[in-house]
Amino acid sequence: MSELHKFLFEGLPVRGMIVRLTDAWQEVLARRASNTATGAYPAPVAELLGEMTAAATLMQANIKFNGALILQIFGDGPVKVAVAEVKPDLSLRATAKVTGELAADSRLPDMVNVHSKGRCAITLDPKDKLPGQQPYQGVVPLVGDNGGKLQRLSDVLQHYMLHSEQLDTTLVLAADDKVAAGLLIQRLPVKGEANLEGTAQGDHDHVQQDQIGRNEDYNRISILASSLTRDELVSLDVDTILRRLFWEEKVLRFEAQTGMLGPHFACTCGRGRVEGMIRGLGQDEAESILAERGDIEVGCDFCGKQYRFDAVDAAQIFTAPGDQMPGTAVVQ
Ligand SMILES: [Zn+2]
Asked: Whole-angstrom Cα distance, residue 82 to residue 308?
């Protein structure tokens, strides 16, 4: 079963998380593989999407926000777009649009950043939006400070966390066709540091000195975390990973989140949303598709579910409720 583990380092301003997606990740891959229009993901795309899904789960679990966290990459190579979405209840879904051929050993720049035009976007979409409220979105290029193409998704996200959130973050991400996993280590912001040790407000110098010592703690733990190989991350269980990396540290662990309390696959698509999409096409366009094919068929990119609308369904979409004959049943 997929699982999320949170932990703290006793007395230190450092927290961590490990996510291990097994059934939830296999569900994403199986649904894509059974889609006859697309077929299964090429291995490098599956690896990228798995890392994105693990990272999005860690980022969602790391914030207190009532809404979806959506991690997207807009590529300028054979992968046009890749999306992973995680809700506050840790339900997740992911999809990618692939055009053209990919070499089996393709890396991040080969897939999405061929001309250095690739972008990574992190969107927080509030569940209960106020009128006119827009989702918050941060966008970063897939190049480092020196202009070089970043080789891994973890580099892109560490860069984002440091520049956009001012948070020291260490990420290790890995995925294959069975497991998508991630390790996150983060230095807690200054305000939380005093709280952690339960100390009263110290004088300024004292606080400054504490700050230096704490950075050393973070750096030490970060280096230990970075020594985790991608093979180890997908193949070892969480207890073994924590013991191997942090056997000299005092790790305080929270109860693991699994099952419906943990990361799980779910798609939020529905017939109503597809109706909205068809309404967006306009009546003329919808009627021309109907004339050509007999019905309108729309498949969900995330879960593969097919939605079919015949001429009567379509006519109903473009009929305002007030125009209907009294007593006409409205099909939902
Ligand atoms: Zn769906």
From this structure: 25
Residue 260: count other Cβ atoms within 10 Å of its Cβ: 10
Give the number of other Cβ atoms within 10 Å of residue 326's Cβ: 4
- pLDDT per position as a tens digit, 264-303: 999 989 999 889 989 998 999 999 999 999 999 988 999 9
Q: Please answer whether residues 279 and 318 qualify as being in contact, where contact means their C-beta atoms are separated by less than 8 angstroms.
A: yes
- The pTM of this model reads 0.87
Q: Which residues are close to ligand 1, an ion, with C-beta < 5 A?
A: 267, 269, 300, 302-303, 305
**CA gap 316, 96 in Å, rounded:** 32
Q: State how far Cα 201 lies from the chain centre.
A: 37
In angstroms, what is the span from residue 184 Cα to ligand 1's centroid?
29
> Measured between alpha carbons, how far is 57 from 52 in angstroms, rounded to an integer?
9
Confidence (pLDDT) at 178 = 97
12 alpha carbon to ligand 1 midpoint, in Å?
42
DSSP 3-state of 112: helix
What is the DSSP secondary-structure string of 33-67?
HT-TTT-SPPHHHHHHHHHHHHHHHHHHHTS--SE
Token output for 110: 């080969």
| Residue listed under structure tokens 């009929």 | 319
CB-CB contact of 69 with 122 (8 Å): yes
Distance of CA 94 from the midpoint of ligand 1 (Å) = 10
Give the Cα separation of 225 and 219 in Å (integer): 10
Q: Are 140 and 159 in contact (CB under 8 A)?
A: yes
